[in-house]
Design a protein that fits this description.
By secondary structure, this protein is mainly alpha-helical. 79% of the residues lie in helices and 0% in strands. α6 (90-106) crosses α9 and α9 runs parallel beside α12 (207-223). The model has no long low-confidence stretch (mean pLDDT 88).
Amino acid sequence: LDNKVPSQVQYSMMLDLMRMLRRSTRWFLRQRTGLNTRDTIDYFAPRLAQLQENIGKRLRGEEKEQWSARQQELVKAGVPEALASTVAAAGSLYAALGIIQTARQTDDKPQRVAEVFYEVGARLELPWLIQQVTRLEVRDGWQAKARDTFRDDIDRQQLALTASVLGMEGGPRDSTERVERWLSQHEGMHQRWRHLLEEVGSGSQGGFPLFAVAVRELVDLAESNSEA
């Protein structure tokens, strides 16, 4: 895109992709998929391509609004629409790695897992929560690592919740209705989570301790399936 779009736009796109690359590299190093490098590429690449296609139709709530705004911003700057769509979805595409792994574990199609995953995220406002984590000011390397850990933990619990919703006996097939049914079955824990989000949104000076509690509450909600 040299001499086609402003250099500032190019740099911002590269930064989006570099963040996704760093997070994805960490994910593969930690997961131990049981596959060698070639088999990993062969397994994940076509499934990632499927999830990337029409990703705007799979996203929900605030995450979809952010994707749409970013895509339109890039298109107005002269970026081809297909590339703008991919770059705008960089953060959401990172989640596709966990979606594919969960589909492998639950024997579901990645597209089905993705529908539930993004619906869970929208209902629990997890993309918004990750934004608040990202805005935490860090003073040293330990706080930077803690911030990264919070983001990774939220992603992991969103996947755990997705698996619980998919594993729910009976219930509607429609993803939105299925998530709604699961949350209604865990109403008490869901209300606790809503109250905590209000605390985060109030701008209270909770800092790192507040987000540590938020992650713990999310773990409790994800694990509440076995207690229901």
